[in-house]
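>> received
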Amino acid sequence: MSAGAQANILDTGETAAGYVTTIKWDENLRKHIYDAEMFRFIQGANGRVLGRTDTRYLDAPVKQGNIQIEGGWSVSSLTEGTETPVSAYSATQVSVTFSEYGDAKQFTEEQLVRQLRGVEGNLVYNALGALGENRDDTIITELMTSSNSYYASGNDHDSDDVVVGDVLLAKDVKAIAATMAASGQSNGMGALIVHPKVAFDLFDDDELNLATGNIMTSDKIAMDGYLTSYAGVRIYQHRGIQTATENSITVYKNLVLGNNEPFVFAPKRLPDMQFDNEYVRARVMTFHYWEMFGVQIVQEDSTYVLTSSTSL
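>> returned
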């Protein structure tokens, strides 16, 4: 049964209804946000995409997906005249649960007749943009569940003694890169994703500036959020990096990804967009858009939450 029309949809004098006419005013303002979906495409220093997109479950009649993870295999030295040694095969798995995401916008038939046909492209653009922005936020939320943590400007810091001066510095990038390189599974650190305010402090560090040049005073920030490479690590900034309150101060939960596909993005239904009629007397149409996917950390030792404060 239809949910019917919203309270103000029949009154084009309402501000929300009136702005349909000027929808193009909104396009450029939000374009830099909508074009910034990046977590599914973040690359390591070798150019390899770090997150895996697994399409095996696309439109498949399954409730969840199970992804098999194999441990590291070994090679033994063989001796002539003796059998090759045998060890048991073992593997673990992680489960991906699928969730729906979407929204709907409503328009009167009068608006459709008068002007909406001229801006249908913007409806699709805005819908895809909102869905893409949500994908990034969902991936960030999943990566935040990592059990691995690091506190900037001193390995001895934890959530009880983090202070305002604990900003992210070049030495922290090298320290956590070394930590991850020592892990058998992570194959080293591939990318660091920081909040824009944290990026300001990082690129105010003389050590990093000498190595890369101060891009915060130049015109080098790419549309995909990529800033520079340092110590074999690609550094990105993203507005969706989460904050928290620890030890009575605001801290930034930057994310570190290893080089061996630390997470998986599994689409279940690709974005679907439709115009539907509400009941006839309402004289309204609803533009509905939604998709379905799952996100899951696959390699726990390839994901770190790097906490820092900021000077801003």
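>> DSSP finds seven helices and 13 strands in the chain.
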